[in-house]
Design a protein that fits this description.
- The chain has two domains: 2-198, Rossmann fold; 216-386, Glycogen Phosphorylase B (Rossmann fold, 3-Layer(aba) Sandwich).
- 47% of the residues lie in helices and 16% in strands.
- The chain has helices spanning 2-16, 21-31, 33-40, 55-71, 84-90, 107-117, 131-139, 163-169, 180-188, 200-208, 216-222, 235-247, 264-273, 303-306, 328-331, 347-354, 364-376, 378-395, 398-407; strands at residues 47-52, 76-81, 98-101, 121-125, 143-149, 174-177, 194-196, 226-233, 253-259, 278-280, 294-296, 312-315, 337-339, 358-360.
- The strands form two sheets. The chain has a seven-stranded parallel beta sheet, sandwiched between helices.
- The protein is globular and about 65 Å long.
């Protein structure tokens, strides 16, 4: 039944792909997977295989991937993605020898993929459970682990109808969970090879502090002013932020907005909605950036360094239903964070809220009150920021747990 559903889904996706660019990218990319493996992997190569659903899981697994790259310098590394949003951005990942789309999870594809890849070790990240592929790995007695796993009791693994997905969990040689609750859920279905290692994202963001986070253009823009950074914003977030900037913001406070969507129409609409002086990243060479109060980043890849200049951050995604973006990237720089109220699927957010380093808001008045409170009280701002930094520091170390197991 599961395999039949996959075949039907494949047919439907091809039809949708005629009208959807993102899905079409995935379809076309999957058609190249086996050829890429043939071109880059020989039968006598020793290989490791890392698989992520998308960009978020890639970032989560990266500390482990980099460590294993150093530990196995003679192995070829295969990196696979399911989603175009991961593949298209990280298709040139420096640690990997070949980056491919994961083929759809049919039995035939599973056998063909593993015939070509023949990995000594496979690492899946967080939610990736593909029964046919996992069962084929188990049948071949190839080592496979799941890292940074986070389970909820309403998932199919723990329901009466989830026989296929539940059995696939038992193909893993070991599962490393983010928390005790996930471990208990696995224990309840009889899976015992589990370790609570924590979330590798804490290690990932901690590594950011060892890098050079200097951005000269941000230094010039900020000057000696307080700076609020709005990271990965969606229209629901921007509506509140823009209203605050236009009607409440002190002229001595600078704002940097990094929208999730950087399509030109979206950026132009955002810029024109702001009544204060506003400049785009792509305009910074033409104008004196320090003269502006609002900077919009119409580019990608800078946000993690921009947080280094923030006195306070608003992280987007939770005012709507798109999903909260990475709050840990901001927290590691020791700044208070504001988010929307739809964050129930993000346990780290609730922990930071309980720890008094993060504030959840649900409307304009709450955003205005919270921003005004922080911007008027540097002592409070620093105190809350310290709580976020200490939270990150307390929870790092997952990579060490995972590598200790893999090296034994």
């Amino acid at each position: 039944m599961y395999s039949l559903v996959i075949y039907i889904a494949s047919f439907i996706l091809k039809i949708i792909g005629l009208f959807n660019t993102k899905i079409k990218l995935g379809i076309n990319g999957r058609e190249e997977t086996f050829n890429k493996l043939k071109e880059n992997i020989n039968t006598n190569d020793k290989t490791l295989w890392f698989h992520c659903a998308s960009l978020g899981e890639y970032e989560q697994g990266l500390p482990v991937f980099n460590a294993l790259r150093k530990d196995y310098p003679k192995h070829k590394i295969i990196l696979s993605f399911f989603s175009p949003s991961g593949y298209e951005i990280r298709k040139n990942a420096p640690f990997a020898d070949v980056v491919v789309y994961l083929p759809l999870d049919t039995k035939a594809n599973a056998k063909r993929f593993l015939n070509l890849a023949h990995p000594e070790l496979t690492v899946f990240v967080k939610y990736e459970i593909w029964p046919n592929i996992l069962n084929e790995l188990k049948r071949r007695t190839l080592k496979v682990v799941l890292i940074s796993a986070a389970f909820r009791k309403n998932q199919s693994f723990f329901k009466w109808y989830g026989k296929n997905t539940k059995s696939a969990l038992f193909a893993f040689d070991h599962i490393f969970t983010q928390d005790e609750a996930s471990k208990r859920l696995l224990k309840n279905i009889g899976y015992s090879k589990v370790t609570v290692s924590g979330d590798t994202r804490f290690d990932r963001v901690t590594n950011q502090l060892t890098q050079d986070n200097t951005l000269d253009f941000v230094s010039k823009f900020k000057g000696d002013n307080l700076c609020a950074v709005i990271g990965s914003s969606w229209p629901e977030d921007e509506k509140l932020i823009v209203n605050y900037i236009n009607n409440e913001a002190n002229k001595d406070v600078k704002f940097i907005i990094a929208p999730h969507n950087i399509k030109s129409s979206q950026i132009e609409g955002l810029k024109h909605s702001i009544s204060k002086t506003c400049i785009l990243f792509t305009e910074k060479e033409e104008k004196k950036i320090s003269n502006y109060q609002v900077l919009i980043l119409d580019t990608i890849g800078l946000l993690t360094k921009v947080y280094n200049y923030a006195d306070i951050a608003y992280v987007g995604g939770a005012m709507g239903k798109t999903g909260l973006h990475n709050t840990l990237e901001a927290a590691v720089f020791g700044i208070p964070i504001i988010i929307g109220n739809n964050h129930l699927k993000f346990p780290e957010a609730q922990k930071m809220i309980d720890n008094k380093g993060m504030v959840s808001i649900s409307n304009q008045s709450e955003l205005t009150k919270t921003l005004n409170l922080f911007l008027a009280d540097r002592v409070l701002m620093n105190k809350c920021g310290d709580k976020n930094f200490n939270f990150i520091n307390k929870n790092k170390g997952a990579v060490v747990h995972i590598l200790d197991f893999l090296h034994n």
